[in-house]
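Lecture 7, part 2: worked example. A protein chain together with acetamide.
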Amino acid sequence: MRQTSSSSARAVAALASVVALLAGCAHAPLAQTAPAPAGAEAAASPSALLPAPMSVTPAAGAFTVRDGTVLVVPTGDAGARASADYLKDLLARTRGLDLTVREGRAPAGAIVLRRSAQGAREGYDLAISPKGVEISAADDAGLFYGAVSLWELLTQTEGRADAVTLQAASIHDAPRFAWRGLMLDSARHYQSPEFVKRFIDVMALHKLNTLHWHLVDDQAWRLEIKKYPKLTEVAAWRVPAGQGPANDIDPATGRPRLYGGFYTQDQVREIVAYAAARHVTIVPEIEMPGHATAPITAYPALGVDGEAPTTGMSDWGVYPNLYNVDDGTFAFLEDVLSEVIELFPGEYVHVGGDEAVKDQWKASPRIQAQMKALGISDEHALQSWFVQRVGKYLDAHGKRLIGWDEILEGGIAPNATIMSWRGVDGAITAAKAGHDAVLAPAPTLYFDNRQSDSGDEPPGRGNLIDLKTVYDFDPAPAALTPDQQGHILGLQANLWTEHIRSEDRAAYMFFPRAAAVAELGWSGADKRDWNGFLDRLVPQMGRYEALGINASDAAWEVRFTDAFDRTAGRASVTLANQVGRGQIRYTLDGSEPTEASALYAGPLDLALGARVRAATFEGGRQLSKPVEKTFDALSVRRRQDDELKTCSAKLVLSLDDDGPMTGPREPLVIDIIEPCWKWEGADLSDIKAISAAVSSLPFNFQIGKDRDAIKFRPPATPEGELEVRLDSCEGERIAVLPLKPAVASAGVTELPPAPITPRAGRHDLCITYTAKSVDPLWAIDWIQLVPATR
Ligand code: ACM
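Predicted complex, written out as structure tokens:
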């Protein structure tokens, strides 16, 4: 981690929302905002909607919504009433505006929700005139989205207001795609029902309408199934990997504390109803035939060998455990699905189908005999047979089957919909074959990838998927004809949570990238406008704050690059942010940067000892938390893990998988297949020693045979050594730092400095470690060149 203050600011924000959850309130408290202005807020422009609407026609005049403005719905129209009540509640909690909902005749100067005889599904018209506001739509969802758009217009500026003026305009709007989704993985890490509801609320405010809920995986089963109680009694709990959790003894049991949780059927019903009220459909995912370690652990007869897996449930990656193909297993799956169908009224059930490594089926004489008896030629065809059998059950119960793109292999089930994750090829194949498909390609729409390479970024996968990368995704694959494109139902971003331990981090990974997904899913291709999107994101960040959502400021976070002039003893420091927008303001006296602070205009020439604090401002809003760095004789010769390069990019992750169950841990960037770092151009002149801080991490990755390919140099001591080599990873070894002092610690340990022979000039340094085996991994937090003179 870098030496910045923004992580502690984030920790404070996290604490605030945890407190809100503990208090049992579904909505986090409002942000502290400026006092209500005496007069009306400035007129809001309808072009500020996010996602961008189909069309906006400006008109003359304005209308002021104020405390007491009446929201009128047709008498007895429950759908319209629900949207009006929702808008009233939303405005009260995010803006402090107090509207009155009424049925029947509209008085002058009202907001009217009205049914239109026809209109696009989910579409709406929103007309603002000096006489009032009218929202009209043919369906309930359209009225809801019209109300959401009006809320956006009323929250262009922040803080409490008792009156907001809107410019007159007519907005005509409807979505581009029917499936505008996000996937939440509640299996790897569990989120509370309160969080899931708050998340659904924020989805709806982006006009996102599909929550794919990943409830089952190797690591846990999270859904109560009445007929199989052990699924949640046993398979919803695990001891996390690593020595921190192993040493975290639960006084109640005398054994390591268990991590986990599950959703009762009552909680699920409540969440489903909450989602339906916000026009969000939940698609539950029950993984099969792979990613099945958890249910097999609870009921070993479901597995290929009929024995509980020996693998445990605390590794990431792809476990080898598959369901067997006995009638008893299908009876189990049908029982489970019958309860799932009863709980989730939506059209689709997701049956997984991904990453089912076929080794266990190949090795089992019983499975091979069954294949022969069924006339099935290979294991892909067996998976296809498996999925088709389940598909028939779903068909017979009025549901549609959706699965990951592997269900194309060996033959796709009739009526199956494909969720394309290995790029968009699965969707293209499916659409060409006349099947529907949803685009959810890795890595672009995999939101467990980090959105910045800043040291403040929480853990995740190592690909850099920044906001622009998401916004630039094209949801209309060029390989498809217009007719075939009709099979693309839409798109979805997935948050896998192996490395996303907390709810605040889940929110951070989703937002604001989900706003880009919302625009791709809702707005026409002709509306794509990166700079316009960023303009509209500025007020959106204020809405996230008002909603208590820990959205990422990575797009605007100020990043430092320093060049150290050794002779002059000065540092030249460059400040920048990811999107190259806004004003960067900074202080040198330790005070918080504000809109009145110095405006950054070019590299700062600083004497050693200078302390820079900086943040990005735009549109009257501070868009990033202040970051801070002191440039002194040591810091200019130190590189944090995020400032080093990994030697390869085989499987780069940012991990914090150790330490106590709760509380801070350092995210550490490491290529787990080739743990090796490079410091390019390190100035070794006048350097007498090298020190480093390291942390061990459990090697809890199911990566099959790839594990055998991970090689280390042999250690000279039992615990191994960190080694620094000159110019290349095969170059002269200039420093050896024994790892022994760090072995007993679950956190970061500073190793004693290793002396080096001084040498002139700049050199690339390669940092590796020696080890007997892959477990534990060793990750570098920072490496320091220690000067002979200070
Ligand atoms: C997946 O990422 N295995 C769908």
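Residues 354-355, 404, 421 surround acetamide (CB under 6 Å). The radius of gyration is 28 Å. Keep this in mind for problem set question 3.
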